Amino acid sequence: MPPLTDRPRQTEAHEALAARIRRWREVRGWNQQALADRAGFARSTLSKIENGLLSPTFEILLKIARGFGCDLSDLVRPEAPRLAGRLVIERGLPGEPVEDAKNRLWPLGAQIKGRGFQAMIVEFTETDIDAFGPWNRHETDDMLHVLSGRLALHTEGYETAVLGPGDTVHFDGAMPHACLSAGPEVCRCLYVFAERDGALPDLDRQTTG
């Protein structure tokens, strides 16, 4: 199971997310065990998330979305119509991030449903590969474009790649990988990923990267 931060999250963003998960579960007539079984992690973890005692990692959010049969963007932001015939402009980062011990995530255009890709701003905060824990892997095609700071991308079978502002990397998300900040400054990236065959990843990992 991917690691979870044990830091309580009492911000409005986390409270709203916990309430949405609980509401969606209840309207389907599921108890916590039913959703946990569909998502593929322990019921006790779901209980702590719904009660604001644990902040879900990126992997756990993806698993919860898979359990509901929806896109991650549908889970983390309120529902809204598709983009068809519309122009959507976001000014600045959209509210508070989803945060854990390794990164902070701001979903972009999360109110838009039915896209073939998803986009986020992500800040990588971990700097120590030994402290990272299990590497990430997920059934997506991934792109990271460095906006600020320096990114250290560790991948299985390749030398560690260090990227600076303006650099971009495209890679197979199913390849074990870990993304860290390569300097004292937090590394901020644009993260775009496409889920293969429209299916959410079945993950054994924590964060983006």
Description:
The structure is a single chain. Mean pLDDT is 81; it is low at 1-10 and 198-207. 25% of the residues lie in helices and 24% in strands. The chain has a 6-stranded antiparallel sheet. The two termini are 16 Å apart. The protein is α+β, with helices and mostly antiparallel strands. The radius of gyration is 16 Å and the shape is globular.
Number of strands: 9
| Helix and strand pattern | HHHHHEEEHEEEEEE
Output the CATH homologous superfamily of the largest domain. Answer: Jelly Rolls
Strand order of the largest sheet: 1-2-3-9-4-7
Overall residue-averaged pLDDT value: 81
Main CATH class of the largest domain: Mainly Beta
Number of domains: 2
* Rg value: 16 Å
The outline comes out as: globular
Strand content: 15-25%
- Roughly what percent helix? 10-25%
CATH-scheme architecture of the largest domain = Sandwich
